[in-house]
Design a protein that fits this description.
The chain is mainly β. The protein is built from two helices and 20 strands. The chain has helices spanning 194-197, 207-212, and strands at 3-5, 12-13, 26-28, 35-36, 49-51, 58-59, 72-74, 81-82, 104-105, 118-120, 127-128, 141-143, 150-151, 164-167, 173-174, 187-190, 201-202, 213-216, 227-230, 236-238. The strands form six sheets. The chain has a seven-stranded parallel beta sheet with strand order 6-8-9-11-13-15-17, with no helix packed on it. It has a five-stranded mixed beta sheet with strand order 14-16-18-19-20. The protein has a two-stranded parallel sheet with strand order 1-3. Strand 19 and strand 20 (236-238) form a beta hairpin.
Length: 239
């Protein structure tokens, strides 16, 4: 079986419903579906694209686990959460638009999405889970929202293309080694002052972060401290 069209009468898809259907390339889900269970499409290694209906409000754990041919996913505006390892191992997923309704990104959500090149996390998201973007080797651009409060352990570990990132001053907690082995990371632009940073709880093994950290300052500092500001184009630059 390479394609399937789910009947219009179906309103929910259970856990593991199509898991392991390695030859399945196309699934058409009717608009009436309101819920999709965990790991529903896990291991559908030939699936290239899918559209989630507007009534679905959460992406369950391992929903697309190791769907390594998946390149196009359309998430509806009502989705508020993405569960653990939902897109784990989707190696060919190059980009994904996250809905504005999203409030949290679970653990390991995009782990080993090695072709993912950029991600913009919408305002409203307050937490990024552990290992959320680990081993996204092509990831070079990450936009974090001003609503973000916590970043989980090793969230961006081994994102070897990441060169700079802005960390909003809303962040109060940073887990262990969030940029571990991000060897190209040059600047981490923190949106607060050096004094603000002292109140952020920072886990161990954050040497890459400490080396790259710059503090915000609207005026040019007199000493050789590591500060930054926005240029005339709204881009972050070091003083």
């Amino acid at each position: 079986m390479t394609s399937i069209q789910i009947p219009d009468s179906v309103t929910s898809i259970g856990k593991w419903a199509f898991a392991g259907c390695g030859r399945l390339t196309e699934i058409k889900i009717p608009d009436g579906v309101m819920s999709i269970g965990d790991a529903a499409f896990s291991g559908c290694g030939s699936l290239t694209e899918i559209r989630i209906p507007d009534g679905v409000t959460s992406i369950g754990a391992q929903m697309f686990y190791y769907c390594d041919e998946l390149v196009d996913v359309r998430l509806p505006d009502g989705v508020t959460s993405i569960g653990k390892a939902a897109f784990f191992g989707c190696e060919r997923l190059m980009s994904i638009q996250l809905p504005d309704s999203l409030t949290c990104i679970g653990d390991e959500v995009f782990t080993q999405c090695s072709w993912l090149s950029e991600i913009e996390i919408p305002d409203g998201v307050t937490s990024i889970g552990e290992y959320a973007f680990m081993r996204c080797y092509d990831l070079w651009r990450v936009k974090l929202p001003d609503s973000l409060i916590s970043i989980g352990r090793a969230a961006f570990e081994e994102c070897s293309s990441l060169r700079d990132i802005e960390i909003p001053d809303s962040v109060k907690s940073i887990g262990e080694g969030i940029f571990f082995q991000c060897n190209k990371l040059i600047r981490a632009y923190y949106g607060g002052t050096e004094m603000d940073w002292k109140y952020v709880i920072v886990g161990d093994y954050n040497m890459e972060l400490e080396r790259a950290l710059f503090y915000y300052s609207e005026t040019q500092p007199t000493g050789e401290e590591r500060y930054w500001h926005y240029d005339e184009n709204g881009e972050p630059v070091a003083w």
